[in-house]
Amino acid sequence: MRAPIGTFDNARPAPDCLDELTAPVADAVRHWRGSVPAEQFVYVDTDPEIADTAVFVEHYGPELRDRSANCVVVSGKRGGESTLAACVVLSGTRVDVNGAVRRQLGARKASFAPMDTATGETGMEYGGITPIGLPEAWPVLVDAAVLDVPHVLIGSGRRRGKLIVPGKTFAELPGAVVIEGLGVPTA
């Protein structure tokens, strides 16, 4: 199989390689019921040593710069309450944590979750967190621009390997909230 984007040597339908995914991601793929069939989710094997976006794009194809997204875990706090959420933005942008995220979560303060919290609560590896397979109670805040990309490269739950999924898929994730301007241009 050939990946719809990038120059990957090994691309397979995600349902055919559940053993390559973390348990929560494999479970989400196995039980996916969205309008895009899970067979259209593509798993590509990648080198975990070149996971940094700039090096990754140079190695696997320059078109990936505008077709990849990042998923980060944030924490919103109000009073004694803390809410974890995920944010999905195109890789050429950064998450508007102090504006869009704080307002959406109704928090007085919002920040990126500590690495041990993000990995412990998701069951995924740092640098490979994906919105596919997150705890169902979490809000998944998705920048509207992600939905316009025909195929989006995102983490697979591990640093090794990525998923390529149609952009519109992100609006169908459990807990998905599509937000205009969640991702703001980097300086």
From TrEMBL:
Organism name: Streptomyces cavernicola
Stored SUPFAM superfamilies: YbaK/ProRS associated domain (SSF55826)
Ranges of residues in domain YbaK/aminoacyl-tRNA synthetase-associated: 48-169
Superkingdom of the source species: Bacteria
Lineage: Bacteria, Bacillati, Actinomycetota, Actinomycetes, Kitasatosporales
UniProt protein name: YbaK/EbsC family protein
Pfam family, one: tRNA_edit
InterPro entries associated with the record: YbaK/aa-tRNA-synt-asso_dom_sf, YbaK/aa-tRNA-synth-assoc-dom
